[in-house]
Structures are given as structure tokens and as C-alpha cells.
Design a protein that fits this description.
elongated; nucleus; 163 residues; transcription regulation; transcription; mainly alpha; 5 helices
């Protein structure tokens, strides 16, 4: 009886081992099929993306070719119609007058020099605004709006009082 119980337990253990091995093989096959399916999907998606990129590159090349030919035509037109501004007599006189006052031909006035000096210094947003800077900003703002600056208003009001 003991031998029979041992042989039955052994047979049952072998049966369980065989069931587990079959289940493992089924699961392995399912995972392998899923892997192959996903691999094929990924390959198809990549090939479609590559085909789309190739199509876009061909279209861009054609577009660039058209643009470059248009650009060449525009450049040829621009060079043919370019004017030589130095031959103007009035501008030449104004240019000489500016040079005699120490200004360059680029219109380098004291105001532009001051603006260049300001732009060359690093911008500190946390720094307090000085009175001079505030006055300059206000006068530039009013000048942009087309209004008189505070200094001009005082002059205009004094002139109005005389009348």
C-alpha cells in the first residue's frame, strides 16, 4: 500500500510537471507570435514614415529648385535696377556737412551714440531706473507718439504766453 501511494504520488507529480511544461510551451508560442506581430507592425510603420520623409524631401527639393530660380531672377533684377546714391548732389552736400560736424556717413548722431552706449551695457531688469533714463524714455515715447517733449511744451507755453 505504501508503494502504491508513492507510485501514485510520483505519477501525479509527473502529470503536473507535464501540464506545466505544456502551459509554458503554449505561453512561449503566444509570446513569440505577439513579438513577431509587433515587430512586423513596427517595421511597416517605419517604412511608411521613411517613404513619407522621402516624398517630402523630393517635394522640398522641387520647391527649393523653383525658389532658387525665382531668387536668381529677382537678384538679377535687383542688381540691374540698383541705384548709386552717392551720385546725388544734395545727399553729397548733406554728407559733407555731417562729416564736418564729426558725424559718420551712417548717421551716427550723439543720440545714436548714446543709444549704442546703453545697448552695450548689460541689461539689469532689477536695477532702479535713474531720473535721466526716465526722462530719456519719456521723451522718446512722446516723440514716437508725435507729441511734443516736455522741454518743447515749456518752450511752446512760454511762446503762447508772449502772444
Amino acid at each position: 500500500m505504501r508503494n502504491k501511494a508513492i507510485s501514485d504520488a510520483k505519477a501525479f507529480g509527473d502529470y503536473q510537471l507535464e501540464c506545466v511544461q505544456k502551459q509554458y510551451e503554449l505561453d512561449s508560442d503566444a509570446v513569440e507570435e505577439e513579438y513577431q506581430f509587433e515587430k512586423q507592425n513596427l517595421h511597416d510603420m517605419m517604412m511608411a514614415a521613411i517613404a513619407e520623409k522621402k516624398k517630402q524631401i523630393v517635394e522640398d527639393r522641387d520647391d527649393i529648385g523653383e525658389r532658387s530660380s525665382e531668387l536668381a531672377r529677382e537678384t538679377a533684377y535687383r542688381t540691374a535696377s540698383k541705384r548709386n546714391l552717392r551720385k546725388r548732389t544734395a545727399a553729397g552736400l548733406e554728407l559733407q556737412d555731417r562729416r564736418s560736424h564729426g558725424y559718420s556717413s551712417r548717421g551716427d548722431t550723439p543720440r545714436r551714440r548714446a543709444a549704442a552706449d546703453r545697448s552695450s551695457t548689460p541689461l539689469r531688469l532689477d536695477a532702479p531706473v535713474t531720473g535721466k533714463e526716465e526722462d530719456e524714455l519719456e521723451s522718446e515715447f512722446l516723440q514716437l507718439k508725435g507729441m511734443n517733449t516736455p522741454a518743447n511744451k515749456k518752450t511752446n507755453s512760454a511762446g503762447a504766453n508772449r502772444r
